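Journal club prep — side note

Before the paper discussion, L.F. wants everyone to see what a predicted structure for a comparable chain looks like in token form. Sequence:
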Amino acid sequence: MRLHRRFGIAAALVLVLGSLAPRPASAADYGSEGFGLGVFLGQPSGITLAGNFGGGHMVQGYVAFELVYRDSFILMADYIWHPNIIVDNSTLELSWHFGGGLVLGTWMHDYYYDCVAWDARGRCVEWGEYARVMFGLRIPFGLDLFFHSVPLELYFELAPGIEITPYAWWILYGGIGLRYWF
């Protein structure tokens, strides 16, 4: 129970501090609506998709795998908000973001090597690997660098979270991404 309480306090703190940040002068400060496609390198690594709704509001998704356990498959979806711009000049725009999201993953590797068949007395007769399915919540935050001359976004992101199933456990994802905006 302590783990859930600490996670809740951290999430509330991020949301409160973010809501106190200065707002942009107008929704146009964050660019127009659009669609971004790119790569994300880190833990996990994969393809990233994003949709910008304007006014600093965005959704992003990942289809990825973990570098440690290459036989994993992870889907992530986040709502992202850019509360303000840190730097804006003729060549680039630097802003920060935070949000909330979901993660769904599956792993199949030796770490979960266990008994897969038992005899009538309950003794193990066959050992093997089995898949683990995980569902969790995450709180992504990071820095975004948008280039004005080309429709590219370079970003760094950390996403602490909590694995809810099959058991409660902390998770931490992060890395660097590059998206091309259409």
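L.F.'s comment for the group: The chain has one helix and ten strands. Keep this in mind when we get to the figures.
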